[in-house]
Amino acid sequence: MSQKNYSLAIEQLKTQFDQQLTTNQSVCEQHGKDESGWAPKPPDAVLFATSTEAVSLAMKICHEHLMPIIAFGTGTSLEGHVHALKGGLSIDLSQMNQIIKINQDDMDCQVQAGVTRKQLAYEIRNSGLFFSVDPGADASLGGMAATGASGTNTVRYGTMRDNVRALTVVLADGSIVRTGSRARKSSAGYDLTHLFIGSEGTLGIITELTVKLHGLQSAISAAVCNFPTIEAVVKTVTLAIQYGIPVARMELLDDITMRAINRYSDLQYAEKPHLFMEFHGSDASVQEQAQQVQEIAEDLGGNKFEWTSLTEDRNRLWQARHDAYPATLLLRPGCKPVTTDVCVPISRLTECIIETKKMIKSSDLPAAILGHVGDGNFHLLILPDANKPEEIAEAEKINHQLVELAIAMDGTCTGEHGIGMGKIDFLQQEHPTGIGVMKLIKNSLDPLGLLNPGKIFADTK
Q1: pLDDT value of residue 461
Q2: Domain with CATH 3.30.70.2190 in the chain
Q3: Is 14 strand, coil or helix?
Q4: Are 108 and 120 within 8 A, CB to CB?
Q5: Which of 10, 43, 219, 402 has the lowest CB atom count within 10 Å?
Q6: For residue 2, what pLDDT band results from cuts at 50, 70 and 90?
Q7: Mean pLDDT of all residues in 330-357
Q8: If you average pLDDT over residues 211-229, what whole number do you get?
Q9: Residue 459: pLDDT above 80?
Q10: DSSP of 372-405, one letter per residue?
Q11: What is the architecture, at CATH level 2, of domain 219-326?
């Protein structure tokens, strides 16, 4: 916890919220870490908020006493987003999990920030609609908006930035702002909605969202194919996109990842680079898409191209993909995972992955490559021994080399993980002229520097 004394603020918060506020050590520790390998940094207190008004009142109290505030969804982020680097108050939004309204005719939905991806999917399962953003983890929609999440469906349906129409946000001083509308487009002033998406809780806390829904296609099929090399996988992806085949999902899993998911999920795939795919449309169009990709894949050495429209088979395939992270960690129990992601133009993807493989080979550290290669985004998971500082340093070196390579290729230091506290220096490198504007916005909306301090860029105060 912090060395500062926030006792007056905590006392006032306790008076207002009673059992909703806790300083219990174990609860605070749970709220001071995410799925990254960063050491936990617990807050001084945790508030389980139940409404936008409750969040507003808590933030007014914190503002008065200069107490830092960190929003907490489900704790599934990967760059230390929820770590309380200066202590303070963690506002847990998990109890704000009401689906306010499903607007079936307009294909959108209003939800509180604590609604999770799977919860929303269950609620709209009989509506003929679905929410497309699928990062794998059962993250909260508020957290997904705050980190600009994407996932396996991004290549066809876009990221959170493409699927959020309006927000309710509480600012640092407790004031409540509503951005956007349910209209499908607008030219009304600054685009405040997208300002807050990807801001990682540094500009305000998202408490409600209006998200876009999509119509379920009449036919969905999934396919899997193994390849002799990663280069062949990426070339297949590149050609499929260049030919205009509207694939809904295109996921790369290298040989290490396949070994991990075979063990974890009791599967029998060949331990070779694989491409997992999904096709949406009519029966005829889905079959045509699959056949087109199969022809491309086989020309590049693809083997055992198998596809299915059975729901249980599709679910099993994508569950294995979503389990890739915990599965890979089990390849080296007790490791300290170093995770990173980059995104590059599709034309540079093959080169970027080949160079990454060379980095891994030269280090002798176990590492896995997987990702949403349909949009140029891939992940690298390195597994250094937690008790060997030299291995951790080597893993961080590879991370730095990969990110610098992606930026040099006109790519980005993160396609979906976000900056958090792990990629602050890389953001400066990627946007040397834009970082000043970002800081001006931060200082305007949060002049005291209370919102998630130490994230995105070094403290502005």
Answers
A1: 55
A2: 219-326
A3: helix
A4: no
A5: 219
A6: low
A7: 92
A8: 94
A9: no
A10: -GGGTEEEEEE--BTT-HHHHHHHHHHHHHHHHH
A11: 2-Layer Sandwich (3.30)
